[in-house]
């Protein structure tokens, strides 16, 4: 049997090789990212704090787009074969500029062990033809009819994927067949594109055209992870690759790296075949695929995320007042004033997620731990280890999309958008869309409970050595130790 995690790792590698043949600049991106990562690892002994170099090197996130709930359910079945589950809800329809008619989730592993083995993610977007701000009833009906006629994934692939999910892997011959079919399903099709139909949808949104204007889906981008995104941004430019205007996400500063910083090279003109109304086939080009790269930081709690969102909004406000200012400098000043400057501050303020372990070098004469997390950390009872942010930022994703679109498209802002949330997306997928905050909190709380129980057990043993009796109930039952929920 080839187990699930090995299938996932092979899937990521093969997609990467395939995408490199389709978009040669992606290979350049991988080369530069590898060089930067090696240099950072060589000079910084703490470079692996947010993931070992082997994990960072293998790490990818892909992106695909589908048109209907049925297509989304089938994509979910394929990703389930690789141990990837829908996490997070992202609505990209409401940005002030460059809004696109899609809602999205990310399929990825969810447990720490599987993430460490291979954290492949696929950001998957669903076209919202029911949103009248983008599609009137007539156009929506025609798009839906077009989508109903196509088949993205062959039945054999779906059957193999279902079997792999049920059995936790596949025998080698079937595993090879699954991988071959899955990679082929996300390759760029050579089939001619109906020029008139594509152009009509492109007036709504280039993303809508990329989903509903063709008969297949494809990898839209495949993103490596880099340890110094600012260095990569400079070096790609030095190699003659045109990058988008800035790095999305929090600024570079002296404090902790949090959430996600992203950038990309601009979508390149790729040759595509087009069919005219008279049936004639000609060669033209489209700009829909780009080379994204990301640097990951610490996952923030809801409170930390609220602080982040406030600082981003304040950055926007100040930039509107001074359009010529350096956005990075403006944001950096705000972060210095309003964001925790150390991991310790993030932890004690419950602004970010950490796993906790008992310190191994506490002096023997300490008897009982303090009753609060700040005391446990400050006095050296516990050590905090940051949880990597495994998810995405809707604002940054929209910024990447907007920077690579050929136009802003059209949206009737006077109409009300079609309500869409994680529950509705779960119904469309036929699987629950998991809450990324809940996943992080579960991991943090489990580690803290284990650490506190170990501290209590150690205190009890010391007390017994000294002829004392100490309560050894599990952590949380003793008022002398903090409840992780606090």
From TrEMBL:
Domain of life: Bacteria
The keyword Iron is assigned to this record: yes
Enzyme class: oxidoreductase
Cofactor(s) required, per the database record: Fe(2+)
Keyword Iron: yes
Record-listed E.C. numbers: 1.13.11.93
Keyword terms: Dioxygenase, Iron, Oxidoreductase
Similarity section: Belongs to the 2-oxoadipate dioxygenase/decarboxylase family.
PANTHER family from the UniProt entry: 2-OXOADIPATE DIOXYGENASE_DECARBOXYLASE, PTHR39479
Protein name (database record): 2-oxoadipate dioxygenase/decarboxylase
Source species taxonomy: Bacteria, Bacillati, Actinomycetota, Actinomycetes, Kitasatosporales
């Amino acid at each position: 049997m080839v187990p699930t995690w090995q299938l996932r790792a092979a899937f990521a590698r093969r997609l990467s090789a395939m995408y490199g043949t389709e978009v040669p600049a992606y290979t350049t991106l991988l080369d530069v990212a590898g060089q930067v990562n090696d240099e950072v690892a060589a000079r910084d002994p703490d470079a692996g704090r947010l993931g070992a170099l082997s994990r960072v090197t293998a790490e990818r996130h892909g992106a695909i787009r589908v048109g209907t709930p049925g297509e989304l359910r089938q994509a979910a079945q394929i990703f389930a074969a690789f141990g990837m589950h829908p996490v997070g809800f992202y609505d990209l329809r409401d940005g002030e500029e460059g809004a696109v008619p899609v809602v999205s989730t990310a399929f990825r592993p969810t447990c720490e062990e599987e993430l460490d083995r291979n954290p492949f993610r696929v950001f998957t977007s669903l076209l919202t033809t029911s949103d009248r701000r983008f599609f009137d009833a007539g156009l929506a009906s025609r798009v839906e009819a077009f989508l109903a006629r196509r088949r993205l994934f062959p039945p054999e692939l779906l059957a193999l994927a279902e079997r792999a999910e049920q059995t936790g892997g596949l025998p080698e011959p079937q595993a090879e067949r699954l991988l071959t079919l899955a990679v082929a399903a996300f390759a760029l099709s050579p089939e001619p594109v109906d020029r008139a139909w594509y152009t009509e949808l492109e007036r709504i949104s280039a993303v809508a055209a990329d989903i509903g204007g063709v008969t297949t889906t494809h990898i839209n981008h495949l993103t490596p992870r880099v340890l110094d995104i600012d260095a990569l941004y400079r070096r790609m430019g030095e190699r003659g690759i045109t990058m988008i205007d800035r790095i999305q996400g929090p600024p570079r500063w002296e404090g902790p790296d949090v959430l996600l910083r992203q950038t990309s090279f601009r979508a390149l003109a790729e040759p595509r075949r087009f069919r005219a109304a008279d049936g004639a086939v000609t060669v033209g080009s489209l700009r829909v695929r780009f080379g994204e790269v990301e640097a990951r930081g610490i996952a923030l709690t809801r409170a930390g995320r609220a602080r982040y969102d406030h600082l981003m909004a304040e950055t926007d406000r100040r930039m509107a007042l001074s359009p010529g200012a350096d956005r990075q400098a403006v944001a950096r000043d705000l972060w210095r004033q309003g964001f925790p400057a150390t991991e310790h501050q993030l932890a004690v303020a419950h602004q970010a997620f950490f796993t906790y372990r008992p310190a191994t070098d506490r002096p023997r004469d300490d008897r009982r731990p303090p009753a609060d997390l700040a005391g446990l950390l400050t006095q050296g009872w516990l050590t905090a280890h940051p949880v990597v942010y495994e998810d995405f930022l809707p604002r940054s994703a929209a910024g990447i999309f907007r920077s690579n679109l050929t136009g802003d498209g059209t949206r009737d802002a006077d109409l009300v958008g079609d309500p869409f949330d994680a529950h509705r997306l779960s119904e469309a997928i036929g699987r629950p869309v998991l809450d990324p905050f809940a996943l992080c909190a579960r991991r943090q709380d489990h580690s803290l409970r284990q650490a506190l129980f170990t501290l209590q057990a150690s205190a009890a043993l010391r007390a017994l050595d000294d002829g004392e009796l100490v309560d050894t109930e599990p952590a949380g039952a003793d008022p002398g130790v903090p409840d992780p929920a606090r």
